[in-house]
Design a protein that fits this description.
This protein has five helices and 28 strands. It is of the alpha+beta class and 377 residues long. Among the domains are: 50-67 and 76-120, no CATH class; 234-275, no CATH class; 283-334, no CATH class; 337-377, no CATH class. Strand 11 and strand 12 form a beta hairpin. Helix 1 (2-14) runs antiparallel to helix 2 (16-29).
């Protein structure tokens, strides 16, 4: 009432023009819209104005503030997906869903907003239990979880039969080796003689590293046939020192032409035949001969090519050995120049020997010396 009294008094005193001016001022300063007076109400109004509804079946989208508020507790927050900080720090979504900084709500309780479309996460194969969570090929989505048909097992993104799948045999990721197939959850090698050795398929009929059994290897140059190590090519099996050994009978001097047929020491085995001692002892010529058998630590019985004209152990013939101190010359045992071979003795220096002075058996008298082959008086 006081305000109206002041207005009446001003109009009466100043005139109609002043009254009109005052009246306009009153309109400017009078009661205003509640949204201007109440900031909170204005904010709610703006939120309602920003709320839009997509096409039927799509999610309701509530836009939040575009610029996230800077706050220490939101330093590592993803404002595009965090339902407690959707679009800005502290902005929570009642639906619990935040996409691209906006709260979204799908009509069904089991529905999930995925890339602008509401899907049933309990049955949707492409969004099973969550967006873009695809069920394996030939699989199903049941109650938000993957299910493979029948007795199949889920292995990654595939439904497989672990009883017969060679890439998932018995369990996911168990791969059968080359040459094997999965049968009743076990990798079995295929073919006669095939078996698994050290995780790989091997044919024990022909594999030289697994001949007859796993890890049974054949020696170098030896093949595997029907599960046994056998000699191949020009080689043959010979029993040496109690062990079967492959030898090349065409060139082996200890088994020349056949097992246990040694060539004389010094001779060679060529095409299964021992060379002559004449070729082994070219200096002997026709006097070359074969003597034996001999024994040593390596071989209990062997023969050797010798020069019968010069060999003091085989002088003239194999069993003749020259006495100690003598030499074989021309197939005969003899002494060096100035020496004489006396019966039952060695070579004697008859020029100075008191018992054989000048010849075998010529002894000087006691006290007499032999000088230049004569007993000195």
């Amino acid at each position: 009432m006081r305000r109206w009294a002041v207005l009446f008094f001003a109009c009466f005193t100043l005139g109609i023009a002043a009254c009109t001016t005052i009246w306009a001022f009153e309109d400017l300063t009078g009661p205003q819209d509640a949204s201007v007076m109440d900031p909170a109400a204005s904010h709610d109004a703006r939120r309602e104005a920003d709320t839009t509804t997509d096409a039927p079946g799509g999610p309701d989208v509530t836009a939040m503030d575009a610029s996230p508020e800077e706050s220490p507790e939101c330093a590592n927050v993803d404002f595009k997906t965090d339902p407690n900080n959707c679009g800005s720090c502290g902005k929570s979504c009642a639906s619990g869903r935040c996409q691209s900084g906006q709260c979204v709500v799908c009509p069904g309780s089991d529905q999930l907003p995925c890339e602008g479309t509401c899907v049933d996460e309990k049955t949707d194969r492409n969004n099973c239990g969550g967006c873009n969570n695809m069920a394996p090929a030939s699989g199903f989505c049941v109650d938000g979880g993957f299910t493979c048909p029948g007795t199949q097992t889920q292995c990654g993104t595939l439904c497989v039969d672990v009883t017969s799948d060679s890439n998932h045999c018995g369990a996911c990721g168990t791969v059968c080796p080359p040459g094997a197939s999965c049968q009743n959850r076990d990798c079995l090698c295929e073919g006669a003689g095939a078996r698994k050795c050290d995780g790989l398929c091997a044919n024990t009929y022909y594999d030289i590293l697994n001949c007859g059994n796993c890890d049974t290897s054949c020696e170098a140059g030896v093949g595997c046939q029907s599960g046994k190590c056998v000699c191949t090519g020009a080689t043959m099996t010979c029993l040496l020192h109690g062990n079967e050994t492959c030898v090349n009978a065409s060139s082996d001097p200890n088994n020349c032409g056949k097992c246990g047929n040694p060539c004389p020491v010094g001779a060679q085995c060529t095409n299964g035949t021992c060379s002559s001692c004449a070729s082994a002892k070219p200096d002997a010529g026709s006097d070359a001969g074969v003597c034996g058998p001999f024994e040593n630590a390596v071989s209990p019985s062997f023969f050797a090519c010798v020069n019968l004209s010069l060999d003091s152990n085989h002088c003239g013939s194999c069993p003749v050995a020259c006495p100690p101190g003598t030499q074989c010359q021309g197939g005969l045992c003899g002494c060096a120049a100035g020496l004489m071979l006396c019966p039952g003795q060695t070579c004697i220096d008859i020029a100075n020997d008191n018992n054989n002075c000048g010849g075998c058996g010529k002894a000087c008298a006691p006290g007499v010396a032999c000088v230049a082959g004569a007993c000195a008086m």
